[in-house]
Amino acid sequence: MTISDVATAERASSIRTSRPRHYAMTAPTFFAVEYAINPWMDTSVPVDTHVALGQWETLRQTYKELGHTVELVEPVTGLPDMVYAANGGLIVNDKAVAARFAYPQRAGESAAYAEWMTRHGYDVAETRHINEGQGDLLVVGAIILAGHGFRTQHQAHDEIAAIVEMPVVSLELVDPRFYHLDTALAVLDDTAIAFYPPAFTERSRTKLLELFPDAIEVTSADAYALGLNAVSDGRNVVLPAAATGFAEQLSDAGFRPIGVDLSELLKGGGSIKCCTLEVHP
Description:
Blueprint: H1 3-15, E1 22-25, H2 49-65, E2 69-72, E3 89-92, E4 95-98, H3 107-119, E5 124-125, E6 137-140, E7 143-148, H4 155-164, E8 168-172, E9 185-189, E10 192-195, H5 202-211, E11 216-217, H6 220-224, E12 231-232, E13 236-240, H7 244-252, E14 256-260, H8 263-266, E15 277-278
Parallel strand pairs: 1-2, 4-5, 7-8, 10-11, 13-14
Antiparallel strand pairs: 1-15, 3-4, 6-7, 9-10, 12-13
């Protein structure tokens, strides 16, 4: 990096501002890979729940050290994927939508997260069509980017738009390794994103670049580490530690990357964002 590059990065960093966030998380107390519903899951590979708990706790403490509020949702026995809290629903614009899962193995998670939302004062809405929460529904400023192709059904997008009273931009996913939008796209602030172009149809790629002409495009190496399954507060970007190239791109763009190792939870097909349900205002 040249002196000019450093100066540019420092100027960009000075205008990046963090905002306190509100997250809900569920400890991986019962985490296991008991079935395979995405390409990352292999039931023949052992899972160390103790390691998973330690990595998850590091993520929780990272959020707290950054000044964010973290509330806990009680894990439920028999729901090994409940640690992936982002899939539990969508909370934005003072509205809450419960997830409707594609696979019966995860159906019980919807009730658990809906109960938590109800206890927090939300009148929880449901969709007729499949929606897998913030796995496929990412808030960017005043709009929602919504994925479809593997889990959330395209028809659910109109339902979501009507419930939360926000415009929804539909994006089609084409690579089964990136089965949720949050595995192929990261929201960095209200106007900035990063994404992996090969995970999308040409039409969706064009749409993203029209909306976000300065979007960061990550390499395959970082995408395959689920590097885009990241969480940003507008300045600090918590991302999988293995995504070193993406971390450099973030630094160059004025963000502060913070790597966290969630390799044990990656065995279930999830990482930082999957473990984090953001409670948007």
